[in-house]
Amino acid sequence: MVQIEGVSQVTDDTFAAEVLGSDIPVLVDFTADWCPPCRMIAPVLSQLAEEQRGRLKVVSLDVDGNPATQAAYGVLSMPTLIVFRGGEPVKSMVGARPKRRLLQELDGVFEV
C-alpha cells in the first residue's frame, strides 16, 4: 500500500463513516501498489491535503484490498480521484496530473 504523508487510509469498512459521513468535501484516491502513476501523484495529494486542511479531506483507498468500494463506484483505472460532497460523488478524474491542473479541476468543489 502506497503511504502518502498527511493522507489517511480508508477501507471498505470505514468508507461510509470517513467519506460519506464527512461534513467537508472528501477527495478519495483509488490507488494500488502496482500502479506507477499512483506513486507519481502521491506527493501532489500530500501537498493538497496539507494546504486544504479543514476545507478538503484527502483519503486513499487500496483497490486490491477493498474491492467492494471500487466496484460500487465503477473504478477501473488507477489512479482514480473522486470527490464526494454530502455523501455523493460530485467529480471524478482518472490519471496522474500536476498539482496546478488538479487545483483547476477542483475549482468549485469547495463551494457548497
Automatic annotation (TrEMBL):
<dbReference type="InterPro" id="IPR005746">
    <property type="entry name" value="Thioredoxin"/>
</dbReference>
<dbReference type="Pfam" id="PF00085">
    <property type="entry name" value="Thioredoxin"/>
</dbReference>
<keyword id="KW-0676">Redox-active center</keyword>
<keyword id="KW-0249">Electron transport</keyword>
<dbReference type="InterPro" id="IPR013766">
    <property type="entry name" value="Thioredoxin_domain"/>
</dbReference>
<dbReference type="InterPro" id="IPR036249">
    <property type="entry name" value="Thioredoxin-like_sf"/>
</dbReference>
<feature type="domain" description="Thioredoxin">
    <location>
        <begin position="1"/>
        <end position="111"/>
    </location>
</feature>
<keyword id="KW-0813">Transport</keyword>
<dbReference type="InterPro" id="IPR017937">
    <property type="entry name" value="Thioredoxin_CS"/>
</dbReference>
<protein>
    <recommendedName>
        <fullName>Thioredoxin</fullName>
    </recommendedName>
</protein>
<comment type="similarity">
    <text>Belongs to the thioredoxin family.</text>
</comment>
<keyword id="KW-1015">Disulfide bond</keyword>
